What does this fold into?
Amino acid sequence: MQELARRWQRAGVRVGLVPTMGYLHAGHLSLVECARQRVGPRGKVALSIYVNPTQFGPQEDLSSYPRNFARDAWLCQEAGVDVIFAPDDTQMYPRGETGDFSTFVVEEGLSRGMEGQARPTHFRGVTTVVAKLFHIVQPELAVFGAKDYQQAAIVKRMVRDLNFPLKIIVVPTLREADGLAMSSRNKYLAGELRSQALVLPRSLEKARAEVRQSSRPIPAARLKAELKRFIERAPAARLDYVEFFEPHTLVPVPSVTRGTQMALAVFIGPTRLIDNARL
Ligand code: AMP
It folds into this structure.
C-alpha cells in the first residue's frame, strides 16, 4: 500500500482516505462520497478496513465485532472506491505479542473526558492506528464522521500538533429514518433492543427542545439527571455518560444553551452506543 501511495504521489495523483473498521453502512459510504468529491474523478479514494485491537479494552467486543469483507468489497466497488487497504494484525503490529511493537501516539488533552474516561486506552489505540494509516496511505485528505465527535477532534489535534501534511474533513452523522445513528454495532440490536436504542436520538431531541424553549441557560447537572431518568425508563438502557461541552475545546460547560455540544454513551443490553449533536 505504501509503495502504491508513493507512486501516486510521484505522479501527482490526489488521494483521499476513509478509515473504517468495516461492516460498512450508508454512513461510511457518505464519507466515501465526500472523499470522491474532494479528490475529483481522476483522484484516488482509499478505504481502510481494520478492526484495530489496540483501541479495544479487554472487556470490549473486539472478537465479536461484526465483519463481512465480501459484502464490504462489493459496496466499495459500487461506491467507486479505488483501493481497499485491509491489513491484518501481523502486518499492523508485527511481533506485538512479544512486546516488540512499542511506539504509540498519545493525545493528552481532548482525550481525557467522555470516551477517553469511559474507555481509558481507546484513543491511544485510535491515534496510533490513524497515524500508521496516514503514513502508509499518505493521503492529502482523510474523512471522518461527526458520529465519533471526540475522535474527529482528537485526530484533527494530532494532525495539527504533529504536522501531518493532510487535511481532516468531518462529515455529518447519517441516521436511519427513525433517527438512530447508523453504526456497525446496530447489528447487535435484536428485537426489542432496536426500538429501545431510540433513547439516544430522542435524548438529543429532548435536550435541544428544552434548550430552545428556555429563556435562560439550563444547569448541566439538572439536564443530565433528567436525561438519565428519561433514558433508563427503557428497561434495557443504562446511561454510561452524558456530557455538555464547548464544541471546539470539548471543555464541559456548567450551563447549557443553544450551540452547546451534547454527547452520550448508553448501553442497550450489552451493546454500547454513542451519539452527539449541537443543541
Ligand atoms: P467505524 O467503522 O465505526 O470505525 O467508522 C469509520 C468512520 O465512519 C468514522 O470516521 C466514523 O465516525 C464514521 N461513521 C460511522 N458511523 C457514521 C454515521 N452514521 N454517519 C457518518 N459517519 C459515520
Remarks:
- The two ends are 41 Å apart (CA to CA).
- The chain is about 35% helix and 20% strand.
- Residues 20-21, 27-28, 30-31, 144-145, 147-148, 171, 173-174, 181-184 surround adenosine monophosphate (CB under 6 Å).
- The CA atoms of residues 157 and 172 lie 19 Å apart.
